[in-house]
Predict the 3D structure of the following.
Amino acid sequence: MVNQVQRGDGNCQSCKSDSSGSNSGGESSKESSRCSTPVLDADRSDRLRDKMRRRMESGDRWFSLEFFPPRTASGAVNLISRFDRMGSGGPLFIDITWHPAGDPGSDKETSSMMIASTAVNYCGLESILHLTCCNQTKEKITDYLTKAKRLGLKNIMALRGDPLGEDWEEEEEGFNYAVDLVKHIRSEFDDYFDICVAGYPTGHPEAESYEDDLRHLKEKVDAGADFVITQLFFRADTFLKFLEDCRAIGITCPILPGIFPIQGYQSLRQLVKLSKLEVPEDITKVIEPIKDNDAAIRNYGIQQAVEMCRVLLESGKVPGLHFYTLNREVATMEVLRQLGLWIEDPRRPLPWAVSAHPKRKVEDVRPIFWASRPKSYIYRTQDWDEFPNGRWGNSSSPAFGELNDYYLFYLKSKSSKDALLQMWGEELMSEESVNEIFTCYITAQPNRRGHKVLCLPWNDEPLASETNLLKDELEKVNRRGVLTINSQPNINGKPSTDPIVGWGPAGGYVFQKAYLEFFTSSENVTALLKVLKKYEPRVNYHIVNVHGRNLTNAPDMQPNAVTWGIFPGREIVQPTVVDPVSFMSWKDEAFALWIEQWAKLYEDESPSRMIIKYIHDNYFLVNLVDNDFPLENCLWQVIDDMFELLDVPPELLNDGAVSE
C-alpha cells in the first residue's frame, strides 16, 4: 500500500519462583462517527480468556511467546522490531516478565511496564504483564495495576517472584504468595483483568510435596485465576501427567505448557540453575560433546522441542503452546514452522496495524498519511477519548497531539546512526544526491558507495509488496525529483483474500483509488498546478509547504475515501481516507522528519545538513488522488505532463509561480 510498510536481559517466567502456600478529540471524533460499522475481527474486542475459549471450542491450536525487558535503550528498539516480526506469525498473546532490579513499573523504555504497553498500543499484540509480590507493598502493587489499566493492559500474570537475596523476606503490608496477589487483583479491580498464574509440572522446588503444590495451584485458580502457564519441562509425559493430576483435583481452566527450545549451553545451564530443574541424562549426553557449537545445540534444541510439541498436540489435550523465547526468534520460529503453527496470513483485518488498546476497539478508519508510521499515528492520537468509526467525518475531525518526542524508542529508526549514514550518504553534494537515495530505496539497488537503502525517514521498512506493483513508475519520478513517501495502486474489486492487496474477512472484495504522496520543488509545483487544471474533478490534490502555504481543490475540506471493502452481511467499510484537515497535522511531522532524522546526522552548518535544510524549507508536500478507480491510473500521466511542461523555456512559466 505504501512505499515502506511491511505487510505487522532479565528473567523469564520459567525462572521465577512462585511458592504458592493534547488535546482530546472526544467530542469531535464522536460527532464524526456517523454510522456504526460492525467490527471486522471479533478478536479485537474479545478478552483473552474468551479468545482462548473460542479457539478451544473450534479445535484451533495457538501459540504464545514470552519476552523479557532489555537492559538498554537500543535493546528496546530491537525488541520492538522483534515484536513486529514475530507478531506476523499470529501469536494469541505475548507476555513480558517483571524484573524487580530493572525498575519494572517506571516509564523507562527498558521497564516491564513500558515494553508491555508498547506491545499493546504500538505493535497491536495482546499482552500479559507479569507482576510479582517481591519487595512490594500492597499500595505499590495497586499503583502498578492502576497504571497498567490506564495504559490499556488487560492481562496480568500473578507471581510471587524470586527473592532478591538468598531467602525470601516478608514485606510489611505486602504479599508472600501469588494467591494473595490474585485475591487482591480481584478485590480491587473486580473482573477487569484476566489473570494468569504459574504451574509447576514437577512441583515447585520450595513446596513440601508435588501434591501440596497442586493444592496451592488450585487455591490460585479458585481465587480468580483464569488460566495457567507452566514452568518449562523436558518430557511431554511430564506435562501430560501434570495436566491429568490438575483435572483430577478440579482445576478446569486452560493449562498451557511452557516450551523452552534449547538454544545454547550457557543459557540452558542458567535456566536450569534458576528454575532448579534437572536436565534428563539423555539430553545431557547429546549436549555436552557439542557445548561449544551454538549452531549444533540450537539445531538439536529445535528438533527436541518439535518432537515434544508434536506429542503434546497429538494428545488432543493441549490447545496451545507457550514459548520461552529468551528474546531470540530463530529457534522458536523454526519450531513453530515445523509444527505448522507459524502462519503469516497476508490478509489483514484492516489495511493498517490495529492497536490492542481496549478503548480503540471501534477504530476502523484512519487518514492514509500515517500508513508507514502507524506507531506515530497511535502516539499522536493517544489522548483521544473516542475514535472515528464508520466514517472519518469532516473538517471538525479531532485535533492531533504534537510529535516532538522523536527520540522515543518506539518512534526511532531501527537502524543505527552509522547505518543511516551509509544508506543516506555520509556526504551529500546536491539535491540530486537526495533524489538518488530515494531512487535506490525504490529499486532496492545499492547507492554509489555500495550500500542498500533499506529505509527512509518516513518509512522504516523495505518496500511493501503492494508498492512493488508501482515500482517502475516510482523509480522514474524519483529520479527526477518527485520524492515519493506514500503510494497505492488503484484496485477494482479484488478478492479480500488477495495475497498482496487483500484485507478483512474472506468472501469480500476490496477497492482502492490510486494515491500518490511526495515532496518536490516549488518549480515542479508551479508546473503541476497548471497541469492539474485539465484533470479536475477526476484528480483531487492537496499541496502545502512547511510554512503553511496551502493549495487544494478538496471540496469543502471533506475527507475522500481511498480504500474500502464490501463483505458478506456487513456494511461497507472504508478504512483509509485522504482528509485535508489531518493532512495539515501530518505535514508538520512529514517536514520535521527531514530535520529530526536526516539533517541531524550531519554537523551543524555542514554542506550535507544545508542541503537537507534547503529541501525542508523550500519543497512542497503533495498528495494526489485519482477518483476514477475503475480506469487506468492517470497520476503517472499527470507527472509526465508536469515534466513535459517543465521542458518548455523557463520564461513561459513565470506566471502563477508558487515559490515564496
